[in-house]
User: Which sequence fits this backbone?
């Protein structure tokens, strides 16, 4: 699997030890089967896409959704270098309603966020440092 050259430190460690860090990869082997369809929303570089493609086999289908122009070229390269013919990469974002939004791009693909600013600025500007009332973003502050 191709990784961005800028990936340093924790990102490479997470990828290297992903079986322990992301136990969902092992779970895919229990729920996916030949001829199944898997939709990877937020495919990033394709870790789940590659595993799912192997599990669903040539008669199955994987749809890899990735809105970021930072990640999409590497996702497409990973699909190509692995010869995956059952994967369709789509450069779109999925939401509960039609519309447009911003996608903040950090210095590397691991720092993407819907919005116009990095999480640290979002937290400071809103004064929500670690406040659990703000759901998933509270853990990022």
Assistant:
């Amino acid at each position: 699997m191709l990784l961005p050259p800028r990936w340093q430190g924790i990102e490479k460690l997470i990828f290297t030890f992903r079986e322990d860090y992301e136990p969902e990869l092992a779970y895919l082997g229990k729920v996916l089967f030949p001829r199944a369809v898997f939709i990877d929303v937020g495919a990033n570089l394709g870790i789940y896409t590659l595993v799912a493609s192997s599990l669903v086999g040539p008669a199955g289908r994987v749809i890899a959704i990735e809105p970021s122009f930072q990640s999409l070229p590497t996702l497409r390269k990973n699909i190509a270098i692995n010869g995956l013919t059952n994967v369709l990469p789509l450069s779109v974002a999925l939401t509960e309603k039609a519309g447009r939004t911003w996608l903040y791009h950090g210095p590397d693909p691991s720092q993407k966020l819907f919005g116009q600013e990095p999480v640290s600025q979002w937290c400071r500007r809103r004064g929500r440092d670690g406040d659990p009332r703000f759901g998933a973003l509270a853990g990022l502050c």
